[in-house]
């Protein structure tokens, strides 16, 4: 009887330690896009944006946890190039063309977390990002419009990431992570790789 009671106590303790927390989060995103081709590389100016969404963390014990998130954000970059034309025998600059590449995304990061202490952990995992109508916008007309759809963009992009999180109390937290652009985000054409930094705040409901 004592052994059964001890086993029940241990089982109850395990259930107490294994907790699931739900919450919301939002923050700042900075993405850096680079194109690679046989004729050279092209690096774009970084793009700043926000991210917002929710998360669920399941803590197995005092040290280990897993976390899933659903976020909305937008990655991309921009560049400028000279517009030139011949006037007589001279090639002159008549203006600057600006291109803004926009990749709205629903992101689903899945991470494993290790708690060094109760309020600090490091994390790593994979970000599964689904593009929503990516476009390029310009300050001059392209085929009669100032906006064009990026037909070559993959629907799903996967980025490994590493980061850290600090919990102020049972509710508020701050985290930072970097998502590595290791895989080509285009189906054809230029090899498009985008890395991005995310820094934000979280709020746990329980």
UniProtKB/TrEMBL annotation:
<feature type="domain" description="Outer membrane protein beta-barrel">
    <location>
        <begin position="19"/>
        <end position="184"/>
    </location>
</feature>
<feature type="signal peptide">
    <location>
        <begin position="1"/>
        <end position="18"/>
    </location>
</feature>
<dbReference type="InterPro" id="IPR025665">
    <property type="entry name" value="Beta-barrel_OMP_2"/>
</dbReference>
<dbReference type="Pfam" id="PF13568">
    <property type="entry name" value="OMP_b-brl_2"/>
</dbReference>
<keyword id="KW-0732">Signal</keyword>
<dbReference type="InterPro" id="IPR011250">
    <property type="entry name" value="OMP/PagP_B-barrel"/>
</dbReference>
<protein>
    <submittedName>
        <fullName>Outer membrane protein beta-barrel domain-containing protein</fullName>
    </submittedName>
</protein>
């Amino acid at each position: 009887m004592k052994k059964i009671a001890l086993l029940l106590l241990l089982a109850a303790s395990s259930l107490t330690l294994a907790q699931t927390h739900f919450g919301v989060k939002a923050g700042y995103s900075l993405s850096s896009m680079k194109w690679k081709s046989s004729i050279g590389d092209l690096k774009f100016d970084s793009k700043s944006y926000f991210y917002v969404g929710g998360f669920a963390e399941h803590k197995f014990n005092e040290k280990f946890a897993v976390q899933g998130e659903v976020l909305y954000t937008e990655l991309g970059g921009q560049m400028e190039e000279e517009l030139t034309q011949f006037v007589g025998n001279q090639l002159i600059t008549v203006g600057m063309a600006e291109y803004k590449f926009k990749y709205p995304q629903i992101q689903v990061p899945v991470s494993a977390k290790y708690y060094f202490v109760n309020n600090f952990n490091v994390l790593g995992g994979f970000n599964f990002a689904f593009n929503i109508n990516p476009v390029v916008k310009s300050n001059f007309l392209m085929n009669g419009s100032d906006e064009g759809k990026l037909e070559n963009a993959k629907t799903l992009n996967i980025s490994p990431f590493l980061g850290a999180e600090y919990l102020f109390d049972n509710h508020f937290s701050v985290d930072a992570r970097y998502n590595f652009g290791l895989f080509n985000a285009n189906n054809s054409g230029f090899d498009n790789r985008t890395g991005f930094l995310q820094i934000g705040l979280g709020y746990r409901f329980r």
